[in-house]
Amino acid sequence: MLAVLVGHAAHAYDCSYTYNGKTLYYNLLVDGASVTYQSYDGSNYQDLNGIVSIPEQITNGSYTYPVVRIEERAFANCRGITYLMVPASVWQIGSGAFANCSSLKHLLVKSTTPPNISDDSFAGMPSTTVVYVPNNAVNTYKADIRWPNVAPMASSSTVDVNKVERSVTRSAVERNNARKPATVATPNNRPSNQPSTPESDFKKGEECYGRGEYAEAAQWYRKAADRGHASAQYYLGDAYFHGDGVPKDDAQAVYWFGKAAEQGVLDAQYNLAICYLHGKGTPQDNTQAAYWFLKAAEQGDASAQVNTAICYENGMGVEQNYEQAVYWFRLSADQDNAKAQCGLGRCYANGFGVQQDDNQALYWYRKAANQGQFEAQKYLQEHGY
Prior knowledge:
The chain is α/β, with parallel strands linked by helices. The protein contains 13 helices and 13 strands. Helices cover about 40% and strands about 15% of the residues.
């Protein structure tokens, strides 16, 4: 269905989609959805304020589209946005897309490959704005021709996009709930008429975290974690891993990740695998890494699936099994994971676990290359594509 705004500087768009309470407008293209503007003049998204989280994908009718672009001047002159989250699926941000977003404080970009931008994509952004990118991509962004000119990269190699996003999102929940001012109870001053349960302690921790009171949050998480609350165990592990409200302690992080992982918390399983893989807080152990990657992969996590595939492809912590590698590469690739798409292309190119097929190899390498995957781009270049 085509909706049209009539009047000065009107703009046609294909659909609207509401995510986390914010409605944005999209054009639907062959390769996915493109965030567009509401109106081209100064009233663009005039009611949009606070935290804006662009989704990885949208649905329109019976179809699902990955969000791949932010169009030229899509959010120009939108002065109410303070926090912006850009998903990993976005590979292009158009000219003037966020021009004169004068209240923008935090820009969270989740892709490990810097999206293509223009020199003026963020023109007029405050000098105090901070850009957050994934830990393993800081150097990639700094080496990009344009991204270093956007804004400082927060905490350099210690940046954790997921942690920042979680903090921002929790703060938004607190504001949207519009609670009346009240004295916040801490573990030492809990009113006697409020019974303590693991869930209530965990929720108090969430409230403290949302206000940036990390030490108090860690205390509440520990009280809930000690009584078996799975999410509290994970967040306490996360606090120790990043030093949020407690001294940074990788061994304690592994301990609490392990407690939560055993209860099926996906993020805990994945983080525990990473710790075993790199020997953080525990002796390096590929077998344990592969085990926990598989546990998270079985819950549908694309990153865990591609890492499970790599374990099987290389016999790392498991017996080498190309068929299993192809299986997990495919599941992750179907979720648009570029690394998995490249791995699937590699399997087809070499006949690993599948019948050798140059056309299929080319198909998957192209999909990965379009997302900026270096190995795939190199393959295409070397083969004259």
